[in-house]
Each structure stands twice: as C-alpha cells, then as structure tokens.
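Study the following:
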Amino acid sequence: MLEAHLGCRLFHRTTRALTLTDDGHVFYDHARRMADTASEAENAVGRRKGRPSGTLRLACAAVMGRLHILPRLPKFLDAYPDVAVDVVLGDAFIDLVEERIDLAIRVGELMDPNLVARRIGTTRRRLLATPGYLARFGAPDSPADLKKHDCVIYGGLTTGATWRFSNAKATLDVQVRGRVRVNTTEGLRSAILSGVGIGVAPSWHFVDKEIETGRLVALLPDFEPSPHPIHAVYASRRFVSPAVRAMIDFLADEFARDAQLRSEPG
C-alpha cells in the first residue's frame, strides 16, 4: 500500500467521499510534474507526433472569439482538413477538465498553477470614451479625475472597480464609480461605444478603426493601463493531441502578425 510505503496518510476517507490530505496534495503535485516531464521527453523525440485530427473543443471570451478566433478558422481548417473545431464562447473561467475543453485562450495573469500555458500575445488596454460623452462631461486630466466621471465597470476584472495606471514615475490605483456595470466582454465593448461612460478595454476589442476614425477617443495616453498577456492554456502536458498543438502554433503565428495582439512591438 502506497500510504504504508510513504509512512503518511494520503486520503481522507468517509462513506461518502474520498479527498486528498495535505500530504496527498504534495505527493500528487510532485507525481504530476514527474509524469509531465516524462511526457515532454517523449514528445521531444517524436514518439507521439501524428497528423492532427478529431474534434478540438476551444474555449475563449465572446469578443475574442467573434473578432479574432472565428475569422481565422477557415485558414486553420484548410491547413488541417481532418480537424473539427467546437468553439465554446463565454467570459467565465470554466473548469477545463469538467467541461471537456481541450484548449482555452485566456487574457490576463493566470491564477491556476495547475494549467499548462503558452503565451501567444499581449493585450494593450486603453482608456476610452465617445466624443459625445466628452462633450457633455469633459475629459479627465489625470487618473484621479476619473472619480468624478461615470465609468463602465466590467465585472470580469479581478480588481473590480479599482483601475491601475502607470507611467515611468509611478503606479496609481484609482477607485472608480459608474451607473453601468456589465459582466461580459461584449457588454463592455457595447457600453463604451454607446457613450454611457468611460471604460478600460483592450484595443483589440475595436477592429473597425473606431479609435483611428474618432468614434472613440483614447484618454490619458501617459497613464495607459498595464498590458495583459494572452495565453493558450490546457489541463496537462500528458496526452496533448496533435490538433491542440497545431492550434496553439497557428494562433501564436497569427497573433504575431497582428499589431493589436502580438507580444512584441513591431
């Protein structure tokens, strides 16, 4: 028995449940890392290489999917005719294992250390408002001025109504307020465009040159919100299908060609 060999209890056992103890979690994490390392070694020498095929379940936020994933799928499907893609759109951080998600595209710092991630891009975020809103209420001269404005609050932001700005000299956290709060990226985009308030959003939300043509105005360019990474994430290095690897490589290459998404300026 493994517990006898290790000299510790790995599980809490009841008539209804079986859960890991603290020692069990430690042992599991080490065992998983060893298995992943072995799997990586096998992949490196080509033992699991094969032709991408089958159905790939890909999860991403609604705006990301609509504007940057779905329009690129024809090119991917032409390159990999044996692959079908089941796109799951939604802004909630779903459990990849429970929902049988093969690959997810996530924006922001990753909170789950158990996920395997590859950075495939960068999100530049802007402080934006419509000319109509600014004509009625004026433009802020500093981040602190946002306290006097209606701001669009996105519920999916981990910092909530606290917005962080930085420049070469300082980093500022500003507690904003607003009469409109949204819980999806589509809602955030639409609310900003409607003129109900000032919002912080990724520049890649606006692919129709809304900023360049003046439909939206970028504010406080010297205090741009910090950028967020874009990651392709999956549950484990073990048994990663060729279709998943092909999609990650494809999106990394596509995003590198897009000025709004690529990791490095150029």
Summary: Residues 54-123+228-256 form a domain with the D-Maltodextrin-Binding Protein; domain 2 fold (CATH 3.40.190.10). The helical segments are 2-6, 22-44, 62-69, 73-79, 131-137, 185-194, 242-256. DSSP finds seven helices and 14 strands in the chain.
